[in-house]
Amino acid sequence: MVRRLERDGLVYYQFASWSEVKHGIFTRHGGVSPAPWASLNLGGNVGDSAAAVRENHERMYAVLGVNGSRACTVWQVHSADTVLVTGPVRGRRWLALADAMITDRPDTPLAMRFADCTPLLFVDPTQGVIGMAHAGWRGTVQGVGANTVRAMTQAYGCKPANIQAAIGPSIGPRRYQVGEEVAAAVYAYFGTSDGLIRRDPADGTAYLDLWEANRRDLQRAGVEQIEIAGLCTAERTDEFFSHRAERGRTGRFGAVLSL
Description:
The chain has 259 residues and is an alpha+beta fold. 21% of the residues lie in helices and 25% in strands.
């Protein structure tokens, strides 16, 4: 179950079962950016001013009570590559070109940005390990979720059955119309499109269910505890930025997870 919280003007969601882990998936509210990025835009390459984006980041970290100076992120490229995080890189805002991060270091927040793609969050309370991934359709059919699980097991000795995963707000199955190349890629990766691709009865166009696709990918990787927020960014532009619904003129909302 997700709960909606508001503090110091910022609105964010948390997974109720993770009360012992500092985390939040933030909405578009509580920042300083002007339209069309109003107002808590965390994206640095969408046309917003660098000063506004920095202020928005500082507000986000302050609300969660995490150390923004230790926050780590990646330059997201729709891959399945995972970075083992030990801390920030001096002189650079991002660690690498990748779409997933894992760490066992306390006081080292993981942060990523979204505007329809799916946030995937991971916690292994047994080993004291966290992870975060960015799953658009390309990352999903490359298995970015499963790859994150494998990285946690290889690097830190996690057992998939002990890993708790959460699928955050993203574009939902009613709104995510995709082309035939995407439908083919889904079939190629999963071996089926049943329950993943819905066809419009009127014209046969395809709609992808990113939530179910990532749930299935994680389940195949051995994860048993999976929670889905069930919040569609394209239907809830009052709360979230949506690249699809706002035709590219929008910001990026943030997700943060820290031991």
